Amino acid sequence: MSMQPTAGELIADGFAMGGERLVALDLVDTELLAVDPPVDLIGTPEQLARWWALQQVRLPAGPVPDGTAVRRLRTAVRELLGSHLEGREPSATSVDDVNAAAAGAPQSLRLAATTDGLRVATRWHPEYGGNAALAMIARETIELMADAAGLSRLRRCANPNCSMLFLAEHKRRQWCVGSVCGNRTRVARHYEKTRRS
Question: pLDDT tens digits for 69-95?
């Protein structure tokens, strides 16, 4: 797939965060769980279409899947990643949902000729049913769950008012977006410190 949307592009279009290396993480971050009530950023067909348009550059070509299917996969992916972060067993339903989405559109590897020589390309087969983009997101999740090094970088934002997940590229990263949650937390700490003085 090609370039990914940046966090700034996603935030400017009304999404709390994004721009992660994996579409699966951008998908789980479309639900704000640290607020009451939780906010679904892809709850309407229009919101889902906007999010999908931003992500389409790195998804297999095809139609925007049904919103219910997208939200079901999002719930399963979040549960799997959350179970890892919380040190507990994932629910069997979530494992089944991710596996079903991955199997929904089979894939095959093929060689593609480019100006730089041969490269490996993935061909998705939605003609057998399922949605290739959902299958790709499920595959990313499966690959992450099987990658101990990748899982060791999985984090939940350190801002207690944020529920975003991300892969930390360096050990010191603790915020989903430093210029958003990091700044908010630093301002709150400063306010609390000066209020006590």
Answer: 999 999 999 999 999 999 999 999 999
Average pLDDT over residues 46-55: 92
- Sign (positive/negative) of CA torsion 49, 52, 57, 60? negative
By the 8 A CB rule, do 164 and 128 touch? Answer: no
| Phi, psi of 17, rounded to the nearest 5 degrees | -165, -175
CA dihedral (61, 31, 16, 142) positive or negative:
negative
Do strands 39-40 and 107-114 pair parallel, antiparallel, or not at all (unpaired)? Answer: unpaired
Cα 86 to Cα 166: distance, rounded to the nearest angstrom? 15
Question: pLDDT per residue over 131-156, tens digit each?
Answer: 999 999 999 999 999 999 999 999 99
CATH architecture observed for domain 7-196: Orthogonal Bundle (1.10)
Domain extents in the chain: 7-196
SS3 at position 90: coil
